[in-house]
């Protein structure tokens, strides 16, 4: 039995080794895809609902496999965050966005470009140097960069996060709290992190006008943002009724399918060039 057991273990070990060599290891697979340029940024326009003009975009990653298949972030971001692969991935998206949007952004200084960061990015100040290095030498200016930190993940060390955010702001970068209303932070993230922008989650926008409780939450978030001197962006806006409800409440910036889905770089650049005078 002992010999059979040992033999079984040996077989299992050989299978794992072989899988690694063939590249079934998900992290090695993602690293190879990164080297091949398979992770690309899509850009969702953010619109000023008073004027209809584009104020910027949010970068949303897509994995474009060699066969053309598009993989949405939901199926690999979790693994990327757990493994640390999210760090090189995020830097690659920043470099690609800076290169792709740089020429149109250079002549339109009020446009912003938002990037999604994860909790781990706000625990190590290397991100400050990386962002400075990427955008200082690019046509996209540091003052056009918006970094989003999601309320969905717990921030293990609030003081470190607060200091990193302050260092980024000192370089002219703006910081947004993403998915507000859904996460761990509650009011404490809004009060303690000192962010510039509040992104109100789709969950509350969906219910605008329909459910009284969600409407009350949106109203109090907007009120809080005004008191804290923060800009508000409404996420996941899908209907004109929602746009109207936001307008009545004085919310100016919105993002969602009612305006545009996330677009490939060439389409977003075309839209900007057509709509926004340089
Ligand atoms: P998020 O940051 O909340 O991004 C908004 C998501 O809502 C995007 O999904 C977007 O395509 C989708 N969306 C936008 N407008 C509408 C709408 O009107 N209706 C509906 N139903 N959906 C809308 P996506 O691109 O699948 O991204 C999902 C999540 O993956 C993002 O949520 C973000 O948390 C994460 N993610 C995406 N790209 C990155 C990245 O580069 N880094 C990190 N760390 N996370 C990322
Ligand atoms: Ca986001
Ligand atoms: Ca440093
Ligand atoms: Ca969000």
TrEMBL record:
The chain crosses the membrane at residues 1-17. Its EC number is 3.1.4.52. It is a multi-pass membrane protein. GO terms for molecular function: cyclic-guanylate-specific phosphodiesterase activity. It is found in: Cell membrane. Signal peptide: none annotated. Keywords: c-di-GMP, Cell membrane, Hydrolase, Membrane, Transmembrane, Transmembrane helix. The keyword Membrane applies. Residues 23-276 form the EAL domain. It catalyses: 3',3'-c-di-GMP + H2O = 5'-phosphoguanylyl(3'->5')guanosine + H(+). GO terms for cellular component: plasma membrane. This is cyclic-guanylate-specific phosphodiesterase. The chain holds residues 262 to 539 of 552 of the full protein.
């Amino acid at each position: 039995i002992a010999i059979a057991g040992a033999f079984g273990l040996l077989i299992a070990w050989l299978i794992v080794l072989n899988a690694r060599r063939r590249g079934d290891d998900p992290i090695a697979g993602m690293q190879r895809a990164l080297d091949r340029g398979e992770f690309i940024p899509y850009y969702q326009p953010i619109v000023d609902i008073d004027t209809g003009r584009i104020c910027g975009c949010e970068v949303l990653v897509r994995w474009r496999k060699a066969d053309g298949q598009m993989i949405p972030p939901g199926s690999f971001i979790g693994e990327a965050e757990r493994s640390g692969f999210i760090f090189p991935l995020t830097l690659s998206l920043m470099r690609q966005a800076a290169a792709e949007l740089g020429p149109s952004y250079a002549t339109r200084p009020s446009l912003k470009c938002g990037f999604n960061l994860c909790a781990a990015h706000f625990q190590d100040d290397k991100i400050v140097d990386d962002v400075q290095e990427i955008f200082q030498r690019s046509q996209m200016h540091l003052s056009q960069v918006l970094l989003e930190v999601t309320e969905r993940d717990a921030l293990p060390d609030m003081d470190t996060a607060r200091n990193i955010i302050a260092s980024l702001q000192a370089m002219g970068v703006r910081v947004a709290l993403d998915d507000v209303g859904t996460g761990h932070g509650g009011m404490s993230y809004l009060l303690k992190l000192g962010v510039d922008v509040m992104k109100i989650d789709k969950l509350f926008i969906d219910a605008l006008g329909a459910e009284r409780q969600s409407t009350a939450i949106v109203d109090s978030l907007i009120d809080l943002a005004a008191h804290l001197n923060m800009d508000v962006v409404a996420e996941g806006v899908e209907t004109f009724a929602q746009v109207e409800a936001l307008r009545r409440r004085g919310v100016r910036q919105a993002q969602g399918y009612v305006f545009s889905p996330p677009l490939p770089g060439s389409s977003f650049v075309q839209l900007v060039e057509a709509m926004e005078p340089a």
